[in-house]
Amino acid sequence: MLEIVAVATVYFLLSEFSEHVAVLPGGTTTLWAPSGLAVAAIVLLGRRIWPAVAIGQILAVMIESHEYRPLVLCAYAAAQVVEALMAGEILKRAHFNPQLRRIRDVLWLMLPAAILPALIGALIAAVTMVLSSPTPWSQFLTQWREWWLGDATGIMVLAPLLLTAASYRPTRPHGLRAVEIVGFFAYSAALIVLTHFVPGEVAIALPPLLIWSALRFGPPGAGFTTALMAGTGVAVAHHMSGQWHWLSPLDRLLVTQDIFSIGALATLVLAATLQERKSLLAGHAALGAFATAVANSELPEDLRERISFEGEALFDTHVAVIEGEQTPTDEVHAAIDVGSERWGWITLPGLTKADVQRRFLDLESVLPRFAALFGVGIANTRARETLVDLARTDPLTGLANHRVFHERLTDEMTRARRYGRPVAVAMIDIDHFKVINDSVGHVGGDKVLKTIAERVASVMRNDSVVARLGGDEIAVILPESGAHGAMIALQRARIAVSGSAVRPAGMVTFSGGVCDSTHADTPERIMEFADDALYWSKLHGRDTTTAYSPDVIKPMTEDERKHRLTRTRAVVGLKALAGMIDARSPGFEQHSERVSQMADKLASAAGWQPQAAEALREAAAVHDIGKLMLDEELINKQSQHTRPEEQLWRQHPEVGAQMTTDVLEPDQANWIRWHHERADGRGYPDHLTADELPEGAALLALADAWDRLLHGSPGQPTHTVDEALKLCQAQEGTRFTTEAVATLREVLAADAAEQAELAAQASPFPDLYPALEPESEPEPEPQTESRRSSDRVAPSIGDN
Fold first, then answer.
1. How many CB atoms lie within 10 A of CB 416?
2. Which of 427, 591, 610, 669 has minimal Cβ neighbours within 10 Å of its Cβ?
3. Backbone φ/ψ region at 80: left (φ over 0), alpha (ψ -120 to 50), beta
4. Its pTM surpasses 0.70
5. How do residues 387-404 score in pLDDT, each as one tens digit?
6. Which of 9-13, 371-375, 756-760 has the lowest mean pLDDT?
7. Which residues 6+ apart lie within 8 Å of 260 measured at CB?
8. Cα(709)–Cα(5) distance, integer angstroms
């Protein structure tokens, strides 16, 4: 009851405003504000509020027209009630969201819900006016049009303000945002004041405010400035009435209402467009974060927490994960399948599809994707559990596996502490093994790994434990050996591995790190320090073996180690997503890896330091991650893109940079963002020229184009190396930078020379390797041993 009284009161006051303020000379009303209130009240409070509309309209007619006949008053009230209820029903059937965050919501409110109901309401009111007053029937059409357009304009101007204000959740602004809000309201207040003094000039100052509100304050700001536009517009119309003397009153009304409706529609559509884009990017970001968690092999309970967090932020409601095959009673759900098994469901309890569609733009595709990724996570967990139960020997290399290694290391460390005897651990990591794997294929990569494992094991003492810890990482436990003895053992292994070609990859090297029990008293610490030494070797050019010493290598803190591990897992997750994107294009499955290899070659040829070249290689491996936002049909489209398709396509570098910002370094994210820029400034998204384009982005752009030239792309042919080089040289200075093309020529020349050398090489594989004497001399100072330098001295990792 209180709501009805409040709405009726506000309705009456708005009618007084419209009668006394929003009237042009000649008696025509530019807008009927109560109609906007009536529609907003029906949408927000439901149809039960219609008596308030009727009461407010009756009071308005009685006060302004001195009309007291009950039948006439009921007819006028019925006109407004029918209008408001009809608009509310139209919006309800359209699954209207009063927040106006979607373009479709704006269009439904501003067109069908404003125009059609106002037409019917005006028809009832005009008939009532003619029948109940001396107004002749010849004026019926004029009265009907004025009433119709006044009501429609009132809905367009006032309803957005009330709807967005009712659903707005204010937050306390800070810093520059607070300053901007103050400036916005100061600008608005200045316009209101100027309206009374120079109303003609206000029309010039109003459009910037409309654009500002839409871009920075969303639908609530757009609704506010739309209402402000109406208030100032009435004053401007009054001011200009003398200059419009040659127009009829109806034409003046139409001009004013056109300005109101077009300005309101444009402002709200602009605000909704930006909100839709934000929602779309939020959906892709949430999927990307969850996919990364899956790729990082998080446990099911962690995935539950993750999907609840991401889902609640996205759908603004609780997200539940239910195990079991039985279909849930909740209307909004998606199945979680693990292979052919129905594992469970993701649900949004208590919501209907209509409810969620009002909140989120792409429910039909996002929720099933969450479910599919969750299924992948469950499958990964089961696979890991199965692997734990496998034999203790690595099936590929024949070495001990991870479990055996750690059991033996624990035993050896216990024995070393008990009897005061030394023990050392050596960590081995094959240099650029991913490049080898990509160039010779997984079968060839397995052969390389198996050969290297055999060569390493063949030169180790019988009491050593050689194990494959995972991937291309091999570890060795050397009982009764200190760091010096372990360095000698690794030197034997390096000679065995790099002394001759490893088929089918050619020459292969590895990096190594060593630590002994004099620096660590637990299995965990000795592994950590050996890993630090290995990391040191990789940071300083690879093909190097380093012995741990606190004077040379600064131990990583637990936070640093966790950060490195987290980042590594996140990069692996991004690379997995990039591989999934490549797999969506037939024949294009290894595109990102090939681009990564080429970018590494270009960076090395350009004189980049190894760490910088590795950073470019890492960014190149995920340069197309932003295509996650594109559907498969657009990615594989062979004909020319339409304008909307091209606009969507050109967003993927920017989206990719946003997705990798929290994982990669800022320079790497910028290389991804700008890998479609051109030297002549005609690229996208920022139209950088050759002088503005970072070298990393220029090299990545060329590596990407080079792979597409050699292997083709949807709708494009393949080329030979010579043909591709000519095409690149033809676009030197326009599409590609001159320096990048020059670097490409150096890379191709070096590749040709290397292939000629490998073809001429005929060294057979040795079956046996000479064994060096085991250590017997006292241990020297910790040192770093390398084929390039046997006495490398460098600052600590923390200083590098």
1. 20
2. 610
3. alpha
4. no
5. 665 667 888 888 888 888
6. 756-760
7. 30, 31, 153, 156, 157, 229, 230, 233
8. 73
